[in-house]
Structure formats: structure tokens, C-alpha cells
Amino acid sequence: MAFGVEELRVLRRALALALNPAPASAEDVQDCLRLAESLDEAMREGARLRAFLVADLGRYRAALPGTAAGYLTLLEEALGAGYRPDPDDLAALRALRANPVAAALLDRCRVMAEQDVRARLARGTAARGATVTAVPTVPACRTRLLALPGGRTAADDRPAAGDGDKQEKRPAQKPSPATPPSPSGPAPDRRPIPTPGEVFPRRKPAPSPGKPPQQLVAG
Questions:
Q1: Residue 40 lies in domain
Q2: 104-122: per-residue pLDDT in tens?
Q3: Do the domain assignments include residue 119?
Q4: pTM, to two decimals
Q5: Three-class DSSP category at 139
Q6: Do residues 28 and 17 touch, judged by C-beta distance below 8 A?
Q7: Taking the chain, what is the end-to-end CA distance rounded to the nearest angstrom?
Q8: Is residue 200 part of a domain?
Q9: What is the total count of domains within the chain?
Q10: Do the beta carbons of residue 85 and residue 110 sit within 8 Å?
């Protein structure tokens, strides 16, 4: 991406405003907006060009080794457009390393592949560290339970200042008369219960008036 003289002037003015904030004129604001739009368009155009180059590169790579010259040219152009080589490109360059251009591109692609691997490892390590840091470690057995809104609290369970006096002045409850005496206490005086024979003694039958009394004969 190349900037013209006018674009460089606008870019320099925008950098100066970023480093030293000051009121910008309406003309400077419009120039910065136009420069931002131009940059966005250039980035979109670069992405489209890179997509076309990658598609052509895949077709040339599939037709190797007959398309070695065109493949090497497209690969170098794609690398200049921001393309990152994949394992298929490294394998193709190893097969063509007898060619000096292919050997030079192989060394360049190996360096880029190593940089990509290191970057992925660094991102993975940073992500794992962030995950471990974000997990709270609070022992469950020592976690203090909090009362829900509207529930009882520790202050409700404590007696009030005047409750003790009220409890002391409250008279003791009398035992119920139906409560049986404790077995450990003294046994009450109990009178013997009379038997039915003592209450209702048996009477001897009276002799019949029509019959003479029987006499027992001795001998």
C-alpha cells in the first residue's frame, strides 16, 4: 500500500492531532474522514486480491510439478500480499528444493511457519492463564452462609434487653393436678381396699316353716 503526497499530508496532520490534542478545523476533519475511507477501501481490495491469489495458488499446486514456474511466482506474490504458507506449500517446496527459487522460498516459509507456531502457543498459554485466574478458589466448608432477604438473622435469635426481666418476673407454672407423682418421691398413704366378702357377708339360710327340724340320731 502506497500513499500519495496529499494522503501523507493528511496522515501527518492526523498523527499530530493524536499526539497533541487541539481543536481541529472542519477541513482537517473532512480530510481525515476521506483518508479513513480510502484506507478501508484499500484493505478490502487487498483482501479480494489475496483471495484470488490463494485460489490460483491452490490450482497451480495441485498441478505440480508441471506448473512449478507459475507456482513459485504466485507463491512469492501471495506472500507479499500477506499470505501465510500452509503445510501443503511446505511439502511442495521440499519437493522442488532442487530449484534455487524454491529453496529460497522454502527457507522463507519455514521462518514464517515457526513464527505462526510460536504465536499460537503464546495465545494458548495466555488463554489458559486467564482462565485459571478467573476461577475463584473459595473453600466450600468455610463459606459463610448469608440470610435471604426477609429471613431470620442472628440479631433476631438474640433476646432483647428487656426480655430477660420479663422472663424472670413471669410466675412459675403450677403442675397439673392430673400429673402422676414422681416415682422417686414419698409414697402416699393408701387404705386397704375391702373385699366383696367383707362388704357383703353371707347370711345363713332360714329354716322352712313346714318342715320339722332334722334330728340327728346318735349311734
A1: 5-132
A2: 999 999 999 999 899 989 8
A3: yes
A4: 0.47
A5: coil
A6: yes
A7: 168
A8: no
A9: 1
A10: no
